[in-house]
TrEMBL record:
This is NADH:flavin oxidoreductase/NADH oxidase. Residues 106-132 are annotated as: Disordered. It comes from Microbispora triticiradicis. The keyword Transferase does not apply. Residues 4-351 form the NADH:flavin oxidoreductase/NADH oxidase N-terminal domain. It comes from the Bacteria. Keywords: Flavoprotein, FMN, NADP, Oxidoreductase. InterPro entries: Aldolase_TIM, OxRdtase_FMN_N, YqjM-like.
Length: 365
């Protein structure tokens, strides 16, 4: 029996296995006009291939809740009808092939308006379809980045509403899981971390104040999402700053993550998708196989919240061990699934479990 290929039931939703596709931006939508932010044939084929490959859950790339929340002008969005319709086609296809369709809702905050990575990823201005980013304060992400517009309380209320509206559209499009992107130095993480949040109002200062925006977003999304379906939250478990003796800059820590996990649970979140980093340029990160698994394991050991692990999980037996040992309830696969869309079906064969090959391919199984 393989733990990786055991179904997982969250609320009334059963996810057929625990090998899931991690959200990965494709930077491949139209940058202007009516098709702006709309999933294309690329997204359908890219996500669809991984459903055919046997992943239990497919998480879309960071999908912006408003235009200025896109990381690049070519990101997907879910703020209008046309986008909702096109996402409907994607979600339907994923479900038809046995994968649970999940959508990651995001706002990039001060890290928005950058070029596609393969063109260098530098900030872009209006001449290249860019815009002035927003953030918790007027502090740029890094050298060469613009000074963000500091959000006031009315802006924050509007953004919380944008997350709720996008969740409503995601549900109408057929998604069964919604994930709030609170990681990787994007807007919610910018509010959470003392490294990026220097506000003196109700949204800054104490842990409670820094977590206020995240929890307001979660409450707004939860209110739109049916009781019987799960909500996920992606967190960066650490900024890799104050916990590193060689980098004393004050940041978000693994202890903060455990504390936040308990809050999220009481606000109706069902699973914490545990990543790390992204908030502080030049933070020193000790990567290696499964390097973020211990953060997920802490959440599982110290709270009642479910957790998934992500980051350099590439081998079937490694993934099996993570789930079987109880370090995480599921694994998210990123780059390995880009290299091999059939990884889950290949892992199932290696672990002696039943994969999920489409009928059309049965002569090859
Ligand atoms: C091309 C690419 C795009 C990504 N886009 C996102 C994203 O939209 N949202 C997110 O939370 N993480 C994103 N990530 C991070 C992945 O989801 C994952 O956490 C990371 O790659 C580590 O897992 P891996 O070692 O299996 O690749 C991206 C990673 C890659 C390689």
């Amino acid at each position: 029996m393989s733990a990786l290929f055991e179904p997982l039931t969250l609320r009334d939703l059963t996810i057929p296995n625990r090998a899931w596709m991690s959200p990965m931006c494709q930077y491949s939508a139209a940058v202007e006009g009516p098709e702006q932010g709309v999933p294309t044939d690329w997204h359908l084929t890219h996500l669809g291939s991984r459903a055919v490959g046997g992943a239990g859950l497919i998480m879309t790339e960071a999908t912006a809740v408003s235009p200025e929340g896109r990381i690049s002008p070519a990101d997907l969005g879910l703020w209008n009808e046309r986008q909702q319709e096109a996402f409907g086609r994607v979600a339907r296809f994923l479900a038809e092939h046995g994968a649970v369709p999940g959508v990651q809702l995001a706002h990039a905050g001060r890290k928005a308006s950058t070029d596609r990575p393969w063109r260098g990823g530098a900030p872009v201005g209006p001449e290249e379809h860019g815009w002035r980013p927003v953030g918790p304060g007027p502090i740029p992400f890094d050298e060469g980045h613009p000074v963000p517009h500091e959000l006031d309380e009315a802006d924050i209320r509007r953004l919380v509403g944008a997350f709720a509206a996008a969740a409503r559209r995601a549900l109408a499009a057929g998604f069964k899981v919604v994930e709030v992107h609170g990681a990787h130095g994007y807007l919610i993480h910018q509010f959470l971390s003392p490294f990026t949040n220097h506000r003196t109002d109700a949204y800054g200062g104490s842990f409670e104040n820094r977590a206020r925006f995240a929890l307001e977003v979660v409450d707004a999304v939860r209110a739109e999402w049916p009781e019987e379906l799960p909500v996920f939250f992606r967190v960066s478990a650490t900024d890799w700053l104050s916990e590193n003796p060689e980098d004393p800059r004050e940041g978000w820590t693994a202890d903060d993550t455990v504390r936040l996990a308990k809050e999220l649970l009481s606000h109706g979140v069902d699973l914490l998708d545990v990543s790390s980093g992204g908030n502080a340029p030049r933070a020193r990160i000790a990567t290696g196989p499964g390097y973020q698994v211990p953060f997920a394991a802490r959440v599982r050991a110290e709270t009642d919240l479910r957790a998934s692990a992500v980051g350099l999980v590439t081998e079937p037996r490694q993934a099996e061990e993570i789930v079987a040992s109880g370090q995480a309830d599921a694994v998210m696969l990123g780059r390995e699934l880009l290299r091999d869309p059939y990884w889950p079906n290949r892992a199932a064969r290696e672990l002696g479990a039943a994969g999920r090959w489409p009928h059309q391919y049965h002569r090859a199984v």
